[in-house]
Amino acid sequence: DVQLVESGGGSVQTGGSLRLSCAFSGPPAKMSYMAWFRRTPGQEREGIAYIDDMGRPTYADTVKGRFTISKDGTDNVLYLQMTNLNVEDTGMYYCAAGLVRGSCLRGEYMHWGQGTQVTVS
User: Fold this and answer.
1) Dist CA 42 CA 100 (whole Å)
2) % the chain with pLDDT above 90
3) What is the pLDDT of residue 114?
4) Whole-angstrom Cα distance, residue 14 to residue 84?
5) Which spans in the chain are helix H?
6) Residue 18 in contact with residue 85, Cβ under 8 Å?
């Protein structure tokens, strides 16, 4: 059915950049609306970036202007380009697909990847 596999996490210094990837497979209808979430130490899971079926993005205020979400429909990869990283960005990052209910950054998603760790120091 649906598979989401994140990669690209790692350790980076403050001010640095990383690009996360999420390789996805499954029914196209379930891949139309996708998002990136993260769980930072001591915080609840946070929706940070979303892309709809027309490629239009939505960002949380905490990452707006620094992160960019994009999707390659040919290679079936969801990206998150992260720039000007700071220590508050440290956490586990997940891609999600299949918005079931709720808003794009706070709603319930049906499918999740296993996550990739980002550490900023």
Assistant:
1) 26
2) 85
3) 97
4) 7
5) none
6) yes
Residues 77, 99: Cα–Cα separation, whole Å: 17
How far apart, in whole angstroms, are the C-alpha atoms of residue 87 and residue 23?
Answer: 26
Element (H, E) at 3: strand 3-7
> Is 2 within 8 Å of 26 (Cβ atoms)?
yes
Q: Give residue-wise pLDDT tens across range 19-75.
A: 999 999 999 888 889 999 999 988 899 999 999 999 999 999 999 999 999 999 889
Torsion of CA 62, 66, 72, 76, to 10 degrees: -50
Token representation of residue 31: 């891949």
Number of other CB atoms surrounding residue 65 within 10 Å = 9
Total number of residues shown for the chain: 121
- With b for 16 or more beta-carbon neighbours within 10 A and e for fewer, the 95-120 pattern comes to bbbbbeeeebbeeebebebebbebeb
